[in-house]
Amino acid sequence: ATCGHGCKYGECTGPNKCKCFPGFTGKTCNQDLNECGLKPRPCEHRCMNTHGSYKCYCLNGYMLMPDGTCASSRTCAMVNCQYGCEEVKGQVQCLCPSGGLQLGSNGRTCIDIDECSTGKAVCSYNRRCVNTFGSFYCKCQLGYELKYTSGRYSCVDVNECVTNTHRCNLHAECLNTEGSFQCKCKQGYRGSGLDCA
């Protein structure tokens, strides 16, 4: 079985047929499945979609149970948590639906952790970190694009001279560089390459 376009989050099961891992969809399994939009809904109260998965949380006054249902809790209602709570050994503790969120100083609301600025997120070479609420993802650096080559996805240099996305002067030559480009005025012209006279 060969899949010319690859199966990003899945496995190749037949000629250009992908079987996606749970939480992913699309012809090449490259799209995140929004489980929160499925019928029946996977969570009783509130659902938060994450990359390849989802998280359940409850309305105020309810506790999240292991099966994703929400059980009424008078003690939780008194604490007034933003995303529901749990009771551990008689102590009530507010919950955050993702590891990329942390409890604020009031102990009730959840604030985002910027994994990109704290260094918690590690993106591979040629990729940059993009923070999202409760998580992050890695995106190709400017001047690179995501391509499927030799059996895997990688960030490859965009040749701005070929794609005509350079800003070189009409009287200049475009020279592609790794992740960028340079402009050089043609013979008989002088200037930066962006301006030639």
Largest sheet: 2 strands, antiparallel
If you average the pLDDT, what whole number results? 86
Distance between the termini: 57 Å
> Which class do the helix and strand fractions yield?
mainly beta
Beta strands, count: 18
Rg measurement, Å: 25 Å
Q: Give the helix tally.
A: 3
The H-and-E topology, N to C, reads as EEEEEEEEHEEEEHEEEEHEE
Helix coverage percent of residues? under 10%
Query: What is the subunit organization of this protein?
Result: single chain
Low-confidence segments, given as residue ranges, are none
Gross geometry: elongated
Largest beta sheet: strand ordering: 1-2
Proportion of residues in extended strands: 35-45%
Describe it for me?
It comes from Rhipidura dahli. This protein is mostly beta strands and 197 residues long. Among the domains are: 77 residues, no CATH class; 39 residues, Ribbon (Laminin). The protein has 3 helices and 18 strands. The strands form 9 sheets. It has a two-stranded antiparallel sheet with strand order 1-2. A two-stranded antiparallel ribbon has the order 3-4. The chain has a two-stranded antiparallel ribbon with strand order 5-6. β17 and β18 form a beta hairpin.
